[in-house]
Known about the structure:
Blueprint: E1 5-7, E2 17-20, E3 23-24, H1 34-47, E4 55-62, H2 68-78, E5 84-99, E6 107-122, E7 128-134, E8 140-145, E9 150-162, E10 165-171, E11 178-184
Antiparallel strand pairs: 1-2, 2-3, 4-9, 5-6, 5-8, 5-9, 6-7, 7-8, 10-11
Amino acid sequence: MRDSIALPHTTWLRDPCVLVNGVCRTMRCMRLAPLATLATALLLTACSTAPRERTTMHALRLVPGQDLRAELQRYVDAHGIEAGWVASCAGSLTDFNLRFADQPNGTTGHGHFEIVSLSGTLSTHGSHLHLAIADEQGRTIGGHLLEHCVVYTTAEIVLGESHAHTFTREKDGTTPWEELQIRAR
Length: 185
């Protein structure tokens, strides 16, 4: 029994599956190799949500001249999003304003930049966003997204929202800054 792995909720009947040498002893699972079954079980567990938890996806497009940070916060405030996150963003900027790690002020630039990544949490109680951009040579920089990042052609954004949580930003003694606090609604 040294090679057995108990995996919760991986059989078709949602009861524990026990693998011995890669074979399911209950004979009700997909009979995958142990690592593949473990990965599948972890993925299913991570992707499952309680029936009472509801999420909403929001899609928006910013047009040339709009401020990326200001428009995101305006959208969050207008839609009352208390626990949101950036799922995806594709677009470009003509101007950027980023605060690099451990720097007191933002750094600005002008040109044409592809948005390589936008990530972070969003809330009517405060948002925390990071942006990575690449110039025309592919050189990439990133940091805290500040206002005055101006859209060049488009910013196609998908946001997720949890209706089971509230995100706030408060000093909690772990750092000198206001950090994410997560509360159940």
